[in-house]
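Propose amino acids for all 247 sites.
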């Protein structure tokens, strides 16, 4: 896979683009969560890439991207990474899609522009994900999907995950939500044990132009449980808010 280097840091990324080459194309950035990587979005690509240039990358310390020095994460720096990568790729404007922690980073960027710990240390990322599977997935989730999800998570070290979680969990973005005035789509599980639905509703109420879509029968990691459905929702939303030229 290609790499882009910015501010002395190298990021693993991929661009999927099956748009008509004679037409201007919007750019959509897919930002994964902690212990994830760009492969988590694979099933979204067929739906989105026919209409947009889809940019996926591994955030710092995940899969093909090296960790920050001393495992020191900051939300501001993670948000700046998105802007720097897009700048290096020559992209001036993009729509952001973030999953879980990736959504926190995306929100921070938007504002700037306008018991698990012990298990992680002792058993590693794969076992941490599998031990938490009942909270992450619905009871109907394919066991093979859960195993794949855990194997992908194991590409990130436990030290990186813990350092990133400390960074993300230390932040309260609630006061910043009213400042996010761009059209925003919130896709939420109705039964997530990790992100209560009321919290999602609070976000939607606080953000002036937010739209909340909820889904039953799926867990926190619904982006891999029902990827086609969520990709279609995202496609519809972005197209609905595109300008006359499609940009």
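Proposal:
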């Amino acid at each position: 896979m290609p790499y882009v280097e910015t501010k002395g840091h190298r990021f693993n990324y991929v661009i999927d683009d099956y748009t008509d080459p004679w037409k201007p194309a919007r750019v959509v950035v897919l930002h994964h969560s902690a212990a994830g990587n760009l492969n988590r979005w694979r099933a979204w690509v067929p739906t989105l890439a026919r209409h947009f240039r889809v940019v996926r990358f591994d955030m710092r310390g995940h899969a093909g991207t090296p960790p920050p020095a001393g495992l020191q994460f900051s939300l501001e720096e993670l948000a700046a990474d998105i802007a720097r990568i897009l700048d290096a790729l020559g992209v001036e404007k993009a729509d952001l899609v973030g999953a879980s922690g990736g959504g926190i980073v995306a929100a921070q960027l938007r504002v700037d522009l306008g018991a698990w710990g012990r298990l992680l240390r002792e058993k590693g990322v794969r076992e941490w994900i599998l031990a938490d599977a009942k909270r992450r997935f619905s009871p109907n989730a394919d066991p093979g999907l859960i195993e794949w999800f855990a194997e992908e998570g194991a590409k990130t070290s436990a030290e990186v995950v813990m350092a990133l979680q400390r960074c993300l969990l230390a932040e309260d973005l609630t006061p910043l939500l009213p400042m996010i005035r761009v059209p925003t789509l919130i896709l939420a599980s109705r039964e997530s044990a990790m992100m209560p639905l009321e919290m999602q509703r609070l976000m939607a109420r606080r953000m002036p132009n937010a739209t909340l879509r909820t889904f039953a029968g799926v867990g926190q990691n619904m982006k891999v449980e029902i990827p086609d459905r969520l990709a279609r929702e995202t496609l519809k939303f972005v197209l609905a808010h595109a300008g006359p030229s499609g940009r």
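The chain has eleven helices and seven strands. The chain has a mean pLDDT of 90.
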